[in-house]
C-alpha cells in the first residue's frame, strides 16, 4: 500500500511539473517529448518572400503605406464607418475623404468641399491644409485652413448635413463664412494652420491651431462660443518648440523638437484628456523631415499652463511617436531608422470600439529626408499607463493585430495571471507597453529579461477562450533579440513548436537595428479553446521579450 501511495505521489508530482510553468532541468525534455503539433496554424515568417508577409487581413494589418495617400489625416467615426479626411494629394484646392469599415478596403470621395473660389474668401488656388471633421447637434463641421486672396493662410469652418457633404460656408446672422474666414487670428499678418477642436467633459469647446510668426511656428488655444465662433479674450499661447512651457521660452533644452534647420516648428495640435489631465500632442520639425515626430505637453486645464516632461540630461522625454534620432551624422543613431519609418506625425486619436488608436501620416519613402515624398495614412495603438500618461505602440512596419471591433478577437493577455521561471520583470509581459525607443535611458528596465538556458512564462486565465492567434514581441535591443521560441503550449494537445522570428525582414545587422514593435506572429487556422498558454525559450545568452498578445474570444 505504501508503495502504491508513493507511486501515486510521484505521478502527481510529475503531472504538476508538466502542467505548471515551474519545473527543473528535466522539464524541457520531458514536456517536449509529449508535445504534438496538432494545431493547424500559419507561422507568418514562413510566408516571407523577401519583400512582404502573407496574413489574414481580417485579423492583422501592416502599415504598408499604399492605400490612402492622404497627408495630415483625421479620422471621424460613425456607426462602424471610418471617415478619413486630410490634405488632398490629388488636388490641393479641395477636400477629399476616404471611407473604410475594415482598414483593408477604402473608397475615395472627391471634393466633399470645394471652395467658392471667386465668390468666396479663399483664393482660386486655395491650397487647403489639414481638414478635421466633427459632428455637433446633428450638423457636420469641416475645419480647415486655406489661402486668401493675399496669399495668407487663414482658418475657417464649413458645414453639411452628412459626413460626405457637400460642405457649404456658414451664413447665420452676422456670421458670413462665404465672405471671410471665421477664425481670423488676432495678428492677421501671420499664416495659421492645423486647426483642431476639443470638447471637454462639461461640454465646453476649445480650438487650437498653429501660428507661423517670424521667430517660430507655435501653438495657441482659444475657447469657443459655439462651433463657428470663438471668444478671442481667451487667446493663449500653448506650446513653443524646444521650450519647456510657453512662459519659459528663452531656454530650449528639448533639442529634438528643433532638429530641422531654419524656423523651429510646432504644429498639428491634438488634445486628449486622461487621468484628469489634458495632453497637448503636436508635431515638430516639419512634415518633409524624417524627424517629423509627435511630442506632448500636459496641463491641469484646457488652456494651460502646459508643461513638457523633461529631466536634465535625458533626451526624447516627451516623444510620443516618431524617429528618436540625432542630427550628428557620425552617431550610430543617425540612419538606423532608414528603411523603417520616416516623417511619422501630424496625427489624430480615434476609437475603434473601445480601443484608442493614433492615426498619422508617414513618408512612403522610408529612407526619406531627401526632398518631397508622398505621405500615406498609417495607424497604431495608444495605451495609457497607471497614471493616465499616453504611450504609443508605434510607428510600426510589422504585422499587428487589428482591434477587436474589426477582427472580433481581443487581446486577452492583460486578463491573465503570470507565472515564470528564469525570468526577470515577468509582469511586464502583458502590460500593453512595448519598448520601441531603445535609446531612451530607462527603457531596458521595461522589457522582460530571460536568463540563459530555459525560461518559461505562463499566462493563466480564469476561463477558456477561443484562440485565434498570438504575437510575441521581440526585444527592441539588437543584442537581446530571439530568433526562435522552443514552443508555445496551450494544453489539451495544442502546441506549436519552434515558431520563428522573421529576422531577415525585422533586423538590420549592418546598423544593429531591430524594427520596433516586431513580433513572432502565429495565426490559428482551426481555432481551439484554452485557459492558459506556456511559452518556453532556450537561449545561450541573456535575451529579452517585450510583450505577449493573445487573440481570443
Topology of this structure?
Blueprint: H1 2-18, H2 27-32, E1 41-43, E2 60-61, E3 74-78, E4 81-87, E5 95-100, E6 107-113, E7 129-136, E8 139-147, E9 153-160, E10 168-169, E11 171-172, E12 175-176, E13 191-199, E14 205-212, E15 217-226, E16 229-239, E17 266-274, E18 277-284, E19 293-299, E20 319-321, E21 345-352, E22 355-363, E23 375-384, E24 390-393, E25 400-401, H3 404-407, E26 410-411, E27 417-421, E28 423-424, E29 448-450, E30 453-474, E31 487-489, E32 495-497, H4 503-506, E33 507-508, E34 513-514, E35 519-539, E36 543-552
Report on the architecture of this protein:
With about 550 residues, the protein is mainly beta. The chain folds into two domains: about 20-55 and about 410-550, Galactose-binding domain-like (Jelly Rolls), CATH 2.60.120; about 65-395, Glycosyl hydrolase domain, family 43 (Tachylectin-2, Chain A, 5 Propeller), CATH 2.115.10. The chain has four helices and 36 strands. The chain has helices spanning about 1-20, 25-30, 405, 505; strands spanning about 40-45, 60, 75-80, 80-85, 95-100, 105-115, 130-135, 140-145, 155-160, 170, 170, 175, 190-200, 205-210, 215-225, 230-240, 265-275, 275-285, 295-300, 320, 345-350, 355-365, 375-385, 390-395, 400, 410, 415-420, 425, 450, 455-475, 485-490, 495, 505-510, 515, 520-540, 545-550. The strands form nine sheets. Strands 1, 26, 27, 28, 29, 30, 31, 32, 35 and 36 form a ten-stranded antiparallel β-sheet that branches. β31 and β32 form a beta hairpin. The radius of gyration is 26 Å and the shape is globular.
Amino acid at each position: 500500500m505504501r508503495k502504491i501511495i508513493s507511486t501515486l505521489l510521484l505521478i502527481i508530482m510529475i503531472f504538476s511539473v508538466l502542467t505548471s510553468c515551474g519545473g527543473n532541468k528535466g522539464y524541457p525534455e520531458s514536456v517536449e517529448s509529449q508535445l504534438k503539433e496538432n494545431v493547424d496554424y500559419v507561422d507568418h515568417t514562413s510566408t516571407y518572400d523577401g519583400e512582404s508577409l502573407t496574413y489574414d487581413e481580417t485579423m492583422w494589418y501592416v502599415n504598408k503605406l499604399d492605400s490612402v495617400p492622404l497627408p495630415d489625416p483625421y479620422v471621424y467615426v460613425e456607426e462602424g464607418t471610418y471617415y478619413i479626411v486630410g490634405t488632398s494629394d490629388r488636388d490641393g484646392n479641395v477636400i477629399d475623404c476616404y471611407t473604410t469599415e475594415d482598414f483593408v478596403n477604402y473608397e475615395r470621395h472627391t471634393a466633399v468641399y470645394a471652395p467658392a473660389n471667386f465668390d468666396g474668401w479663399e483664393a482660386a488656388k486655395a491650397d487647403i491644409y489639414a481638414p478635421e471633421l466633427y459632428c455637433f447637434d446633428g450638423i457636420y463641421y469641416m475645419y480647415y485652413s486655406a489661402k486668401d486672396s493675399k496669399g495668407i493662410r487663414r482658418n475657417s469652418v464649413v458645414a453639411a448635413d452628412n459626413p460626405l457633404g457637400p460642405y457649404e460656408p456658414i451664413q447665420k446672422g452676422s456670421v458670413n463664412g462665404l465672405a471671410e474666414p471665421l477664425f481670423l487670428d488676432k495678428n492677421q499678418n501671420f499664416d495659421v494652420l492645423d486647426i483642431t477642436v476639443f470638447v471637454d467633459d462639461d461640454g465646453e469647446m476649445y480650438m487650437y491651431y498653429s501660428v507661423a510668426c517670424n521667430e517660430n511656428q507655435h501653438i495657441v488655444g482659444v475657447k469657443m462660443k459655439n462651433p463657428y465662433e470663438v471668444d478671442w479674450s481667451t487667446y493663449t499661447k500653448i506650446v513653443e518648440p524646444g521650450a519647456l512651457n510657453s512662459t519659459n521660452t528663452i531656454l530650449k533644452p528639448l533639442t529634438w523638437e528643433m532638429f530641422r534647420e531654419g524656423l523651429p516648428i510646432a504644429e498639428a495640435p491634438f488634445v486628449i484628456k486622461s487621468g484628469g489631465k489634458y495632453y497637448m500632442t503636436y508635431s515638430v520639425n516639419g512634415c518633409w523631415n524624417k524627424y517629423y515626430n509627435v511630442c506632448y505637453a500636459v496641463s491641469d486645464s484646457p488652456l494651460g499652463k502646459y508643461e513638457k516632461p523633461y529631466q536634465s540630461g535625458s533626451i526624447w522625454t516627451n516623444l510620443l511617436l516618431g524617429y528618436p534620432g540625432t542630427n550628428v551624422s557620425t552617431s550610430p543613431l543617425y540612419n538606423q531608422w532608414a528603411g523603417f519609418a520616416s516623417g511619422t506625425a501630424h496625427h489624430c486619436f480615434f476609437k475603434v470600439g473601445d480601443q484608442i488608436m493614433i492615426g498619422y501620416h508617414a513618408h512612403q519613402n522610408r529612407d526619406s529626408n531627401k526632398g518631397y515624398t508622398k505621405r500615406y495614412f498609417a495607424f497604431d495603438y495608444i495605451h495609457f499607463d497607471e497614471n493616465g500618461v499616453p504611450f504609443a505602440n508605434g510607428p510600426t512596419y510589422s504585422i499587428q493585430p487589428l482591434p477587436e471591433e474589426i477582427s472580433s478577437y481581443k487581446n486577452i493577455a492583460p486578463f491573465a495571471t503570470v507565472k515564470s521561471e528564469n525570468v526577470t520583470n515577468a509582469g511586464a509581459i502583458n502590460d500593453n507597453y512595448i519598448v520601441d525607443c531603445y535609446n531612451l535611458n530607462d527603457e531596458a528596465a521595461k522589457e522582460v529579461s530571460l536568463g540563459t538556458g530555459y525560461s518559461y512564462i505562463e499566462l493563466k486565465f480564469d476561463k477558456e477562450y477561443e484562440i485565434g492567434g498570438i504575437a510575441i514581441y521581440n526585444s527592441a535591443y539588437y543584442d537581446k533579440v530571439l530568433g526562435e521560441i522552443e514552443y508555445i503550449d496551450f494544453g489539451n494537445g495544442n502546441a506549436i513548436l519552434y515558431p520563428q522570428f522573421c529576422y531577415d525582414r525585422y533586423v538590420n545587422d549592418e546598423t544593429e537595428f531591430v524594427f520596433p514593435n516586431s513580433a513572432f506572429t502565429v495565426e490559428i487556422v482551426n481555432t481551439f479553446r484554452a485557459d492558459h498558454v506556456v511559452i518556453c525559450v532556450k537561449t545561450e545568452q541573456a535575451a529579452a521579450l517585450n510583450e505577449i498578445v493573445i487573440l481570443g474570444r
